[in-house]
Q: What sequence folds into this?
């Protein structure tokens, strides 16, 4: 049996070699029969399972690079989280999940049923009835997630509107005595660390809710360590796996089901505003920014303070 398996030598000396095969149990049974060792495919399946040789996906674990300030920023984020929790102030992990299309377009995953759902034979975006852009807000301390579904585009305005809706209707009810808010996020997309327009919209958000908002970005190539990516989005994906996003109502219903036995619960809202793309900060916007940058790694750590607290 071993002679029918292949071994790929690991490039990293700290990793073990990978034993694998691209043959099915039926193919392995035929190969072994040709070699003079007939074995049934059921016996081969059992042996493979016992040996830990199962169907596996390629795992995206190799970092695309490593920033020299990576560890320093991770330590800073941990310090900020500890500080906010000790002061009784909230902190949230935020990110936008991948855009999906509405309509009868194929989606990965399997569910139990007497018949399969039917989807178009091609995944042309022009055949969709629209898009859904899920912006997530995860409260790790309370183990609660929220999704604002956008129907337009993933922009800095959308990200800030998403948190504004969440804070005004949910967040401030849970943290009535909050004096500041911490947001952890990656460094690109709608909350890019490099874009002045995000800082401009963040100031408007801070003004509207009347609280300072501190932002801590994860270093490049490290967005997967943002808690929302590991503790919320996988459960959201599981709740929607194998289901057609045929209507907006279906999407809302499915996402609200994202929950775990350890207490995770999910709330969902729809933001119907249409957002403009291509916005850039003007020279006037840049000059009027009131952002306070940290002394340590200011490109990733800064605070927007409302005008009435200047």
A:
């Amino acid at each position: 049996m071993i002679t029918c398996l292949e071994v790929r030598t690991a490039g990293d000396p700290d990793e073990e070699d990978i034993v694998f095969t691209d043959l099915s149990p039926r193919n392995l049974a035929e190969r072994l029969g040709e070699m003079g060792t007939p074995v049934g495919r059921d016996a081969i399946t059992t042996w493979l399972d016992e040996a830990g040789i199962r169907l596996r996906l390629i795992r995206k674990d190799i970092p695309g690079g490593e920033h020299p300030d990576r560890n320093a920023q991770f330590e800073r984020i941990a310090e900020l989280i500890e500080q906010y929790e000790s002061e009784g102030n909230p902190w949230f992990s935020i990110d936008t999940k991948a855009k999906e299309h509405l309509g009868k377009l194929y989606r990965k995953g399997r569910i139990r049923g007497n018949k399969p759902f039917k989807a178009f034979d091609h995944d042309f975006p022009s055949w969709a009835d629209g898009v859904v852009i899920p912006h997530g807000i995860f409260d790790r301390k309370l183990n609660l997630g929220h999704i604002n579904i956008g129907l337009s585009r993933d922009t800095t305005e959308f990200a800030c509107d998403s948190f504004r809706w969440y804070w005004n209707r949910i967040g401030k009810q849970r943290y009535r005595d909050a004096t500041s808010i911490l947001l952890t996020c990656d460094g690109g997309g709608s909350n890019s660390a490099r874009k002045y327009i995000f800082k401009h919209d963040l100031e408007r958000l801070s003004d509207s809710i009347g609280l300072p908002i501190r932002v801590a970005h994860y270093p490049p190539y490290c967005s997967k360590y943002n808690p929302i990516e590991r503790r919320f989005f996988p459960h959201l994906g599981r709740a929607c796996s194998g289901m057609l996003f045929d209507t907006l109502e279906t999407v809302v219903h499915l996402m609200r089901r994202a929950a775990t036995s350890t207490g995770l619960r999910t709330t969902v809202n729809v933001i119907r505003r249409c957002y403009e793309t291509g916005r850039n900060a003007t020279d006037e916007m840049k000059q009027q920014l009131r952002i306070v940058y940290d002394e340590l790694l200011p490109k990733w750590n800064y605070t927007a303070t409302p005008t009435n607290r200047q």
